[in-house]
């Protein structure tokens, strides 16, 4: 079966020399959710924009349902957009403040020849009170607004939805409702999802597979369970160990990796993490490390994996 | 020793709409808690629950149209409400210091880091000249800023977010305060940096026997860095107690919902929580404010619930708090 | 919109209320000038020149030609609106599309606009207006066109700034992602949101237009003397100031100030009313 | 960035703008219906004489050729001949510029000295009574036509009260003017120790400077207020409050932060007042550059108009460069 979305050797440079995306490849199968995890500057949002061709990449290829959309014009892309959808992080900013909710829901139907009457069904599908249809965005809560965005995204039965931090600006209890809705929609329609987030727990909950980004490069991919249980790349290990589980009875196991993410200008030739990595070898600075298999479906870009010396020693939680 | 004691604090905002009608938002509706020396208390809740407002009130930083119709805030035994600006200025930054959420924009952009730390001491008359510089540099070292001598001469715009947050911690500590109020201290930071900054803060608070009030929406921060927690909902504290007790035996349905909304719990228990909108602060209902969303709501909830003790140090404002969950 | 709303607006922005009121008064004066003015504005009483205010039929005195200053001042409002409305329309008609395209597309349109603005910044508009009107002829229509065209790039810059701010707004991105064609993104999503901030600037630009056309007339280019234009009337009155006949220049000046101030107050108040930050704090 | 590099880059940016302005003016004065040849030659001239003058002025050549020739002479410092008094334009500019600079510098100086503190004070309590009053005052000042204000001042202070001297020129005709050094009569008289002339020059300055300063103050108040309100609402001011800094220190922090944008604005104010000076000079028969330029425009004095506009443009370029230089010194972020 062809992948819904295939990204091949994608590179994106912003004017001014910031290399946001650095030779990234991945594919998403129908009905699958791929989680894309990274901290600031990892290029995860840029990948979201590139995947939906809201941005044109510097190099590489983007295939949507087998069709190369890397260089398609805006006009040629437009009919495809019915099936290639996106939901953004900021629900307050993602909806035109001068349109009513009803009109906002009708818009995707209008654009792709749908039946405008379906707007009500959409509202019901995302559990939006029908009374909100006549209101304006500023009259709704963040959770409701995000439901509107999701309803707009599913209006034309998409094959892929890119979700760029869809729950990051929502409160915890509201967040759960949105995640639940997304899971239901995927179960019902088999839509594939690219779930972009910095929140490890959420990604773990919703994703089938996960890719970890560091400074625009994928350092590790694998099935969600395996990647979270036995992370291979020292950066993934660091990231997971820095996470604070919301449970005081789970002991923290800290890897004391120092420093912060360097600026994505003038990146070194080798492994980007080598500068902070306690396990770095001289060879790490030679060139970009190749992906090494760890377990079925799991691989990481670290030289230390070859002889299985990639485990960071955990420092016990001092408290 | 109790440093900060907030008792039945109310805060309201009076505003006028385009229709010229006066509307009053009841933002805090009877908040009570204490912070003692040597303990880190977490104040947790969702947007609009009144966490930051509580911190501002404690610092004496509320400005019109916010006003305090009722309540008491005692710091080191002294009533804060009603103090003149001049008296408050002697407390703020000196005995009670704040760490804010946006470190990069909070530092004076036109002054070097070292000079800002020195100014902080000079204004509060704790140290001057060379002594202040020495102390400033020592503080930068204490918050684990590498090469503090060089950082003294850095401009704020040259710092990363994590570095700037450490500088803010140094600013807060440089006058040896008794209480630290940290308002979402790591919200803007990356996961790996957040952990480093929180570790630093906790170590210093412990080493100096300070009291700390940490305001956060992140249950992970509460779980691992606080000893006690107060959960806020719609301007009230609905549950408070030692962190481990509250997490193991949440006694207010809202606390339970919060904990059950974390992805880890969802993975274990499935989808148990449906979110809802918080009550309208302009038109608060009588009785329990969580009633509309509560799975256990009953007629009793039409009356405002008192704080019911679950254990000696743990209590919840729910009529059913005493019963087994 | 009810009476309480009107009161609310007035309370929130007294500046807007006062300014709007002043404009309204002038609009009425302009509309019913023939009814309100006791005498035709250009009727000359050769034996009754330079009469002080209150003498006979001249409520505010008469000028050097024996014309009624009061009637002429009232009729001046027609010239003020005669410049403000068409010049404002020209600014909007040229400035809005220009600003939209420059802000959205960038490219050469934006480059040209920016260079024009550079030139305007280094080349004071008043001198430019003077030079152009002096060179191209002095009719009122010409003044309107020159003022309108000269200010269009400035209005376009205001629209452009709003569009630039919106261009990367999430909802615009979402509109593209939803499959909106470009024209629809611009007209349905950007324009309605960009226009609001620009609207508040329109009265300010109109105030500028009224001022500059009066200045031109004062200098002696543009509207010429017997016409009841405030600037031209001040010019007439200028020579009498040192001989003590103050009223010829005073009253048209006051009218000019009131009109320009009204527009400025309205614009200033409007930008306050439309400022989302102020709205959010409810102050 | 080095100072030299900075100035070099400024010049590179300014050059096309200056060229554009020159070209625009050049075309503008030539599309008019005024015929300079007839004006120069006088009513007695016959056809061959007119033709000769036309050829001399290159007016029979295509416009672009004329412009090119003009640029060629410009590079050598020759701005052509003004036919108001048949003097070289460069000489006329040198004669008239100091009077205008004196007026504008004093007006902007007073405007800044009054406007900045008022704007800062207004921003301290937005919508308080002082803010409302100063806001109305500044909008009022915005709406005042300078020339009318000048006329009314003349009526009140010269005609009615007799306090001010006759509004004719920069020094009373009854006193011997000092030798020209700086071009400012006041400074020159003081330098020459000529008390009488200095007193007269100062008296002549009061009304035009006063009127001009009112007009200059208004926008400075408005912008300072807006800048200061933004600064006062900034995170670092809020943080300074949380640090327990007293008002005096918070005010100092805010002042420093507001300084850069305020200076930038005052700079732009200077350049626009340089042009607006022509009106006030007109009313007070000041005889400065503005007055001279205005006459040049009215008379269709090609070379003079071009020279006038060039001076204004160069002044604005210089002022903006100066402002940027000051910003560079004050603002650590700009130095990065």
UniProtKB/TrEMBL annotation, chain A:
Transmembrane segments: none annotated. GO terms for molecular function: ATP binding. Pfam families: ABC_tran, oligo_HPY. Its main location: membrane. Keywords: ATP-binding, Nucleotide-binding, Transport. It comes from the Bacteria. Belongs to the ABC transporter superfamily. This is ABC transporter ATP-binding protein. It comes from Falsiroseomonas selenitidurans.
TrEMBL record, chain B:
CDD domains: ABC_NikE_OppD_transporters (cd03257). Residues 6-259 form the ABC transporter domain. It comes from the Bacteria. It is a peripheral membrane protein. Coiled coil: none annotated. Keywords: ATP-binding, Cell membrane, Membrane, Nucleotide-binding, Transport. It is found in: Cell inner membrane. PROSITE patterns: ABC_TRANSPORTER_1 (PS00211), ABC_TRANSPORTER_2 (PS50893). Its main location: membrane. Pfam families: ABC_tran (PF00005), oligo_HPY (PF08352). The keyword Transport applies. GO terms for molecular function: ATP binding. The keyword Cell membrane applies. Belongs to the ABC transporter superfamily. This is ABC transporter ATP-binding protein. It comes from Falsiroseomonas selenitidurans.
TrEMBL record, chain C:
It is found in: Cell membrane. It comes from Falsiroseomonas selenitidurans. It comes from the Bacteria. This is ABC transporter permease. Keywords: Cell membrane, Membrane, Peptide transport, Protein transport, Transmembrane, Transmembrane helix, Transport. It is a multi-pass membrane protein. Belongs to the binding-protein-dependent transport system permease family. Residues 77-267 form the ABC transmembrane type-1 domain. It holds the Pfam family BPD_transp_1. The chain crosses the membrane at residues 16-37, 79-102, 122-150, 208-226, 246-267.
Automatic annotation (TrEMBL), chain D:
It comes from the Bacteria. It is found in: Cell membrane. Pfam families: BPD_transp_1 (PF00528), BPD_transp_1_N (PF19300). The chain crosses the membrane at residues 12-31, 103-123, 144-164, 197-221, 257-287, 307-330. The keyword Cell membrane applies. It is a multi-pass membrane protein. Keywords: Cell membrane, Membrane, Transmembrane, Transmembrane helix, Transport. Belongs to the binding-protein-dependent transport system permease family. This is ABC transporter permease. It comes from Falsiroseomonas selenitidurans. The lineage of its organism: Bacteria, Pseudomonadati, Pseudomonadota, Alphaproteobacteria, Acetobacterales.
């Amino acid at each position: 079966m062809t992948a819904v979305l295939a990204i091949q050797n994608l590179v994106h440079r912003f004017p001014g020399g910031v290399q946001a995306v650095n030779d990234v490849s991945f594919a998403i199968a129908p009905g699958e959710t791929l989680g894309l995890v990274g901290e600031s500057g990892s290029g995860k949002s840029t990948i979201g924009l590139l995947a939906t061709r809201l941005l044109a990449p510097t190099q590489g290829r983007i295939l949507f349902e087998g069709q190369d959309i890397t260089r398609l014009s805006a006009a040629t892309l437009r009919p495809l957009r019915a099936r290639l959808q996106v939901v953004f992080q900021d629900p307050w900013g993602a909806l035109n403040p001068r349109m009513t909710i009803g009109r906002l829901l009708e818009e995707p139907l209008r654009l792709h020849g749908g039946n405008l009457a379906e707007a009500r069904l959409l509202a019901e599908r995302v559990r939006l009170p029908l009374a909100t249809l006549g209101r304006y965005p500023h009259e709704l809560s963040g959770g409701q607004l995000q439901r509107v965005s999701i309803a707009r995204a599913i209006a034309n039965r998409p094959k892929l939805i890119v979700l760029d931090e869809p729950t990051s600006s929502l409160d915890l209890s509201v967040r759960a409702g949105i995640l639940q809705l997304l899971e239901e929609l995927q179960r019902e329609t088999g839509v594939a999802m690219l779930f972009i987030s910095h929140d490890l727990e959420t990604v773990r909950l919703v994703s089938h597979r996960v890719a970890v980004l560091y400074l625009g490069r994928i350092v590790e991919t694998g099935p969600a369970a395996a990647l979270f249980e036995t992370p291979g790349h020292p950066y993934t290990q660091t990231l997971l160990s820095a996470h604070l589980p919301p449970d005081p009875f789970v002991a923290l196991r800290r890897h004391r990796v120092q420093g912060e993410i360097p600026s994505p200008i003038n990146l070194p030739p080798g492994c980007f993490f080598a500068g902070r990595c306690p396990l770095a070898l001289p060879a790490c600075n030679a060139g970009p490390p190749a992906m090494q298999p760890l377990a079925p479906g799991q691989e990481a870009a670290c030289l230390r994996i070859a002889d299985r010396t990639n485990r960071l020693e955990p420092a016990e939680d001092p408290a | 020793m109790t440093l900060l004691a907030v008792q039945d604090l109310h805060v309201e905002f009076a505003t006028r709409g385009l229709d010229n009608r006066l509307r009053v938002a009841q933002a805090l509706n009877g908040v009570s808690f204490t912070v003692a020396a040597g303990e880190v208390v977490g104040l947790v809740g969702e947007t609009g629950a009144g966490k930051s407002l509580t911190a501002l009130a404690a610092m004496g930083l509320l400005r019109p149209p916010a006003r305090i119709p009722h309540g008491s805030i005692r710091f080191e035994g002294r009533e804060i409400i009603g103090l003149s600006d001049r008296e408050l200025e002697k407390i703020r930054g000196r005995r009670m210091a704040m760490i804010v959420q946006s470190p990069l924009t909070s530092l004076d952009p036109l002054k070097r880091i070292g000079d800002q730390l020195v100014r902080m001491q000079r204004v509060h008359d704790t140290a001057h000249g060379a002594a202040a510089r020495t102390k400033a540099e020592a503080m930068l070292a204490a918050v684990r800023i590498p090469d503090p001598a060089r950082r003294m001469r850095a401009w704020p715009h040259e710092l990363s977010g994590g570095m700037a947050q450490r500088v803010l911690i140094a600013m807060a500590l440089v006058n040896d305060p008794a209480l630290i109020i940290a308002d979402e201290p790591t919200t803007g930071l990356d996961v790996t940096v957040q952990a480093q900054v929180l570790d630093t803060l906790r170590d210093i608070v412990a080493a100096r026997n300070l009291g700390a009030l940490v305001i956060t929406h992140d249950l992970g921060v509460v779980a691992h860095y606080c000893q006690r927690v107060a959960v806020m909902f719609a301007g009230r504290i609905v549950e408070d107690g030692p962190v481990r007790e509250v997490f193991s035996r949440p006694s207010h349905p809202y606390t339970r919902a919060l904990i059950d909304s974390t992805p880890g719990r969802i993975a274990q228990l499935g989808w148990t929580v449906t979110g809802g909108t918080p009550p309208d602060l302009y038109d608060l209902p009588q009785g329990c404010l969580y009633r509309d969303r509560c799975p256990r709501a009953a007629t009793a909830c039409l009356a405002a619930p008192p704080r019911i003790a679950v254990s000696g140090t743990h209590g919840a404002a729910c009529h059913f708090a005493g019963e087994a969950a | 919109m009810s009476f309480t709303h009107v009161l609310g607006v007035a309370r929130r922005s007294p500046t807007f209320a006062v300014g709007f009121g002043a404009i309204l008064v002038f609009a009425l004066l302009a509309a019913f000038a023939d009814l309100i003015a006791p005498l035709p504005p250009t009727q000359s009483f050769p034996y009754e020149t330079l009469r002080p205010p209150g003498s006979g039929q001249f409520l505010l005195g008469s000028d050097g030609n024996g014309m009624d200053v009061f009637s002429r001042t009232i009729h001046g409002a027609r010239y003020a609106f005669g410049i403000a409305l068409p010049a404002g329309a020209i600014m909007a008609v040229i400035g809005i599309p220009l600003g939209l395209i420059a802000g959205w597309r960038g490219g050469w349109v934006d480059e040209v606009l920016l260079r024009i603005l550079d030139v305007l910044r280094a080349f004071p508009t008043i001198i430019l207006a003077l030079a152009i009107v002096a060179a191209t002829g002095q009719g009122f229509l010409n003044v309107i066109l020159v003022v309108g065209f000269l200010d269009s790039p400035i209005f376009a810059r205001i629209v452009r700034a709003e569009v630039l701010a919106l261009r990367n707004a999430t909802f615009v991105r979402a509109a593209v992602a939803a499959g909106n064609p470009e024209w629809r993104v611009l007209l349905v999503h950007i324009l309605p949101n960009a226009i609001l901030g620009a609207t508040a600037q329109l009265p300010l630009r109109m105030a500028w237009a009224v001022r500059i056309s009066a200045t031109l007339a004062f200098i002696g280019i543009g509207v010429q003397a017997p016409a009841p234009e405030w600037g031209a009337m001040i010019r007439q009155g200028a020579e009498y100031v040192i001989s003590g006949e103050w009223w010829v220049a005073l009253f048209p000046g006051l009218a000019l100030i009131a009109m320009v101030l009204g527009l400025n107050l309205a614009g200033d108040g409007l930008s306050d009313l439309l400022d989302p930050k102020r709205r959010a704090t409810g102050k | 960035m080095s100072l030299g590099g900075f100035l070099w880059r400024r010049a590179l940016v300014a050059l096309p703008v200056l060229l554009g302005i020159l070209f625009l003016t050049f075309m503008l004065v030539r599309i008019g219906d005024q015929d300079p040849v007839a004006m120069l030659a006088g009513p007695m001239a016959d056809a061959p004489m007119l033709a000769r003058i036309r050829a001399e002025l290159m007016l029979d050549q295509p416009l672009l050729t004329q412009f090119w020739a003009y640029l060629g002479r410009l590079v050598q410092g020759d701005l052509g001949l003004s036919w108001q008094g048949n003097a070289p334009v460069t000489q006329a500019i040198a004669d008239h510029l100091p009077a205008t600079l004196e007026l504008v510098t004093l007006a902007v100086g007073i405007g800044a000295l009054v406007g900045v503190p008022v704007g800062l004070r207004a921003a301290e309590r937005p919508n308080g009574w002082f803010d409302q009053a100063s806001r109305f005052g500044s909008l009022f000042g915005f709406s005042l036509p300078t020339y009318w204000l000048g006329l009314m001042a003349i009526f009140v202070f010269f005609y009615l009260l007799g306090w001010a001297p006759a509004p004719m020129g920069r020094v009373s005709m009854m006193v011997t003017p000092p030798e020209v050094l700086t071009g400012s009569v006041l400074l020159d008289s003081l330098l020459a120790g000529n008390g009488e002339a200095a007193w007269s020059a100062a008296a002549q300055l009061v009304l035009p400077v006063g009127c001009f300063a009112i007009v200059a103050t208004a926008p400075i108040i408005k912008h300072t207020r807006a800048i200061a309100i933004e600064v006062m609402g900034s995170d670092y001011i809020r943080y300074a409050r949380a640090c327990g800094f007293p008002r005096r220190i918070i005010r100092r922090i805010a002042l420093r932060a507001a300084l850069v944008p305020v200076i930038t604005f005052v700079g732009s104010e200077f350049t626009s007042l340089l042009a607006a000076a022509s009106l006030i000079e007109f009313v007070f028969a000041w005889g400065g550059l503005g007055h001279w330029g205005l006459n040049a425009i009215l008379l269709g004095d090609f070379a003079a108009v071009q020279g006038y506009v060039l001076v204004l443009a160069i002044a604005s370029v210089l002022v903006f460069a100066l402002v940027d230089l000051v910003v560079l010194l004050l603002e650590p972020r700009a130095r990065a």
